[in-house]
């Protein structure tokens, strides 16, 4: 078992500007909050200035920009002194290569080519010629700016090594002798000869299926685990690996006592494979818990609104097919070409088309035994329906994909995961704006809300199968913060009011792309008040990710001017600003109710709860990099001290009520684990029963309010009651004691819309 059992984690984005020493200073606060472990962003040496750490360049050392090994030791001492442990994030799938000189293995590969001692580290297709590096400007004479200096090739700020014996002559002549070729950045998606992370050319895929590569890239992390300095390991993006099951088996063997979780995104109803891990990073929980606070009765209203605004009905199935096909054939064209080359018996263009259709039709990120065969069969049927002209190629390629020893079958799953991520998460989620509270990583936007019965089945299954899996509501990858989603959920309780408001705003400030406009108005009302520059940055990212009216590769200046004018109107047009602010103010209190409800459910349900940095108070963050903004921990310390001194906060702008819920729930789980060893739904009786969700964890009882506006409109709780498992229980949020076998919800939830009850003896 881990040296310190992981009961609850707190995620910190350790980065330059908030380094290991700054993180160490949080130890006392985190212990007071109630967590048992700091959960850090990657700590190994990353690309210079990296704000996230997922672009590791040297697996042999702690990132010197974070404080290096000395900083890590200071962090460990601070954690030990506070009684905390450490969970680290590792990145086995890829390495950072944007700055070749910072990555010794990549530098040596560029210098020595296939003769490099590190040639086996990277997934390079040498049969297609030199290693292509997409760094040049997209002009015919870009190489004229190439220079030879200090035995290196230089292109503006970029530096590249020169192979031994090839340094004589002009820069162009030297370049032509290298194991690599510098090409236009536009050729990256179509022609690269190395596997990447998704479509990010600055992240080169690692071959950790090779035992030597695994050993070299994991030696330091595993040494920490063996020394008892790490209690848990979070594995980034296992779907990108050639053999995830084999990798995780090797990792578990090397770290048998670690709490091991994987960033595996499960589609609706999909089960985690039977890997030797403790669970996932919790996106499935985010979807189920958030859905509890969405009124499913509003689905038809929002579908009608979306159809009217867009001028056409939008099919999620057709939209995602098209965005996934676009990702497969454009963003991931280089990977598609490599796959097609593995099917030499099929015409290359036909093979590309068939493989792209299969990937676009694949219903999950990646197929794993035993369900992988079913997903492949379904994808073949759907691809054939859409492209009957490809029947022969689809049959031939599908036969190959059924053979686990076939190289095509080994590589295709790496492709489907990337197609899903880029086509759905990073494109369709920005085009499908029917109701953006559901557009979340691991979410299922076509499933409009979660009924309590389904949630209870989900939670009971987790308790049975994956009791140590992580639960979360926010991560550095979520599309919007948990409290933004909670406020947006309120829109489902007043669909006509929202339809009238957004129709008026869109008429007052028109934008050619109605779907994007609807997304921006929802974003604004969900995060208001939000700084103007943050909303501008979000709008630009959303529009370019959607790639419908503008894009990263080919921005449309005229459209983007109109889009930014829309954002400015939210702040500068009095009629628009007043209406937007008034609407946001109206839905903010019920949004707070939803926020507290989903937070309590997430923290109290089966699993190991994670709190993303700063979200113990209200958080109106949007997609990264917005959700990596600095956190004011001084304010949080001060508020927590006031709570511990007996302050009973109101549910208001301070967010202290959320801090109360977080701290009291986490402390209960840490100090009284015996109260959280079971899961049983509790029956609510009375006229407002549908507005409550309640469960017994084996002594601790959690109760949360659902659909607060409709509850108020129906007359409140009235005679609605909850059966208690013991006859005397106290609420950890208010201190009130409740006696008897029944408690009236109007009494229980009078101060806060949530309650956490524990036995008094």
UniProtKB/TrEMBL annotation:
Residues 13-398 form the Glycosyl hydrolase family 13 catalytic domain. SMART domains: Aamy (SM00642). GO terms for molecular function: (1,4)-alpha-D-glucan 1-alpha-D-glucosylmutase activity. GO terms for biological process: alpha-glucan catabolic process; trehalose biosynthetic process. This is Malto-oligosyltrehalose synthase.
């Amino acid at each position: 078992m881990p040296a310190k059992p992981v009961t609850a984690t707190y995620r910190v984005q350790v980065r330059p500007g908030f380094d290991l020493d700054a993180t160490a200073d949080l130890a006392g606060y985190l212990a007071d909050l109630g967590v048992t472990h700091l959960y850090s962003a990657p700590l190994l040496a990353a690309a210079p200035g990296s704000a996230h750490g997922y672009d590791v360049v040297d697996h042999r050392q702690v990132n010197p920009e974070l404080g290096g090994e000395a900083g890590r030791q200071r962090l460990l001492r601070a954690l030990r002194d506070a009684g905390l442990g450490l969970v680290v994030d590792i990145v086995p799938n890829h390495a950072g290569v944007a700055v070749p000189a910072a990555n010794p293995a990549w530098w040596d590969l560029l210098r020595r080519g296939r003769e490099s001692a590190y040639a086996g580290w990277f997934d390079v297709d040498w049969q297609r010629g030199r290693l292509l590096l997409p760094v040049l400007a997209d002009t015919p004479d870009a190489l004229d700016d190439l220079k030879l200096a200090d035995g290196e090739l230089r292109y503006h700020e970029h530096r590249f090594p020169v192979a031994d014996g090839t340094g004589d002559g002009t820069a162009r002549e030297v370049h032509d002798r290298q194991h690599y070729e510098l090409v236009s950045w536009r050729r990256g998606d179509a022609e690269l000869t190395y596997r990447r992370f998704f479509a990010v050319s600055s992240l080169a895929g690692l071959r950790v299926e090779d035992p030597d590569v695994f050993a070299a890239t994991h030696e330091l992390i595993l040494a920490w685990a063996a020394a008892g300095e790490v209690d848990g390991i979070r594995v980034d993006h296992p779907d990108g690996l050639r053999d995830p099951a084999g990798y995780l088996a090797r990792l578990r063997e090397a770290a048998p006592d670690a709490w091991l979780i994987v960033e595996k995104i499960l589609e609706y109803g999909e089960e985690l494979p039977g890997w030797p891990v403790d669970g996932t990073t919790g996106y499935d929980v985010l979807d189920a818990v958030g859905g509890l606070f969405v009124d499913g009765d509003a689905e038809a209203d929002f579908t009608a609104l979306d159809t009217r605004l867009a001028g056409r009905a939008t099919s999620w199935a057709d939209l995602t097919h098209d965005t996934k096909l676009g990702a497969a054939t454009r963003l991931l064209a280089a990977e598609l070409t490599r796959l097609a080359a593995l099917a030499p018996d099929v015409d290359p263009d036909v093979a590309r088309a068939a493989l792209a259709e299969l990937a676009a039709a694949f219903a999950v990120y990646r197929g794993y035994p035993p369900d992988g065969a079913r997903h492949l069969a379904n994808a073949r049927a759907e691809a054939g329906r859409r492209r009957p002209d490809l029947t022969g190629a689809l049959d031939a390629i599908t036969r190959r994909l059924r053979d686990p020893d076939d190289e095509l079958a080994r590589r295709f799953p790496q492709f489907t995961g990337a197609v899903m991520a880029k086509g759905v998460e990073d494109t369709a989620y920005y085009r499908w704006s029917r109701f953006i509270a559901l557009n979340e990583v691991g979410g299922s936007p076509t499933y409009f809300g979660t009924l309590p019965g389904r949630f209870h089945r989900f939670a009971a299954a987790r308790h049975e199968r994956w009791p140590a899996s992580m639960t979360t509501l926010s991560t550095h990858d979520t599309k919007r913060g948990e409290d933004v989603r909670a406020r947006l959920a309120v829109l489902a309780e007043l669909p006509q009011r929202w339809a009238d408001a957004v129709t008026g705003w869109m008429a007052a400030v028109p934008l050619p792309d109605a779907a994007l406009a609807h997304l921006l108005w929802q974003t604004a009302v969900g995060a208001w008040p939000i700084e103007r520059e943050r909303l501008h940055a979000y709008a630009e990212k959303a529009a370019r990710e959607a790639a419908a009216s503008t894009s990263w590769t080919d921005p449309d200046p005229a459209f983007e001017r109109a889009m930014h004018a829309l954002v400015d109107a939210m702040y500068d047009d009095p009629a628009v600003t007043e209406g937007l602010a008034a609407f946001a103010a109206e839905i903010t209190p019920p949004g707070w109710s939803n926020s507290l409800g989903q937070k309590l459910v997430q923290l109290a349900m089966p699993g190991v709860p994670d709190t993303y940095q700063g979200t113990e108070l209200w958080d109106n963050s949007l997609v990264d990099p917005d959700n990596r903004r600095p956190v004011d921990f001084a304010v949080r310390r001060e508020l927590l001290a006031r709570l511990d001194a007996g302050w009973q906060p109101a549910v208001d702008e301070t967010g202290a009520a959320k801090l109360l819920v977080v701290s009291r729930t986490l402390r209960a789980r840490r100090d009284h684990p015996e109260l959280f060893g079971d899961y049983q739904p509790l029956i609510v009786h009375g006229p407002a029963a549908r507005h409550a969700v309640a469960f017994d964890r084996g002594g601790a009882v959690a109760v949360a309010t659902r659909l607060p506006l409709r509850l108020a409109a129906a007359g409140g709780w009235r005679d609605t009651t909850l059966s208690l498992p013991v006859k005397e229980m106290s609420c950890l949020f208010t201190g009130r004691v409740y006696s008897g076998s029944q408690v009236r919800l109007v009494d229980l939830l009078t101060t806060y819309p949530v309650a956490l009850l524990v036995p008094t003896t």
